[in-house]
Amino acid sequence: MDDSQQLPNRRLQQLDMTGLVNQNIWWNLTIMRLWASSISRAQLYVSSQHDPQSQTRDQEAKASPVTTFPKEMCMELLVDLQVSSSSKKFLKEAFSANANSPLHLKCQDLYTTDIIDHDFGQLLSLLDPLTIRRVDLNYGKIILNDVGWFLSQITTFQNLQSLKLPSFSEQEIQKMNSTPKTLVDILAAELSKLKHLREISVHSLCLSDKVEDLLRDLPCSLESLQLSFCSLTTKDLIYLARNQHSTHLIKLDLAGNKLTDQLDAFLELLKSASNSLKWLNVTKCGIKDSDFHKTLS
């Protein structure tokens, strides 16, 4: 092969390793350690290239000043993160080291069952805001005094498509509701900043007569909505039936809301969503067999 036929010099720019997080916490922890160690190994490799004879590469890598690399020399490692009390510290260190490594960790989907505190918020601030697609805090527990600050970290993720919010303690809810801006007001203001949001999950938060306040300013029509154990009223169900979201809903979770006294509004919602809806959860809603037959008629 002569020079004119030589293949171009190409470099791998992104390695997609998403989809590996599952229900096994020990597997997830192992995978998180692998991602974190990949950054430190990349730093050591660069250090060894500068001084191949060095016997103290690890020490030199830690002591070396921050190095920036040309874009063509860098590679993105696209991953999903499962953040726990065991992984939070070393993941923060790994993402803090991104700028000093030719291998850049990029998080696409983030999950946690951990306590959501300021340390967790600081980890969020280290993530690439344009890469994050999903944030699942459904099984987390928030213990922050400044919920607005935490939500402002979430809304920096401008390409976010799915947000599952954590549970809020009664003490926090009462404290926030005693201020001029209630928790629902703060949630609504921050959610309205997410231009690509298609899925919202809220659970165990009293939203009686407040669903419209929460959802009315969303830029996009929702495809998935969970409002479980939220004490929904007839007013809330009628709003859901008549707004722009109902005709786009594919998944709807209303578990834990008493629907028997507002069956007509619920049936109106089902009728409005009937052309798109594929998944429905109404467990623990008090619906009897006779009520269920009405939904099929």
From TrEMBL:
Any one cellular-component term (Gene Ontology): cytoplasm
Pfam families listed in its UniProt record: LRR_6
Keywords of the record: Cytoplasm, Leucine-rich repeat, Repeat
Subcellular location: Cytoplasm
InterPro entries named in the record: Leu-rich_rpt, LRR_dom_sf, LRRC14/PRAME
UniProt family annotation: Belongs to the PRAME family. LRRC14 subfamily.
Name of the protein described by the UniProt record: Leucine-rich repeat-containing protein 14
Organism: Sarcophilus harrisii (Tasmanian devil)
Recorded name of the encoding gene: LOC116420718
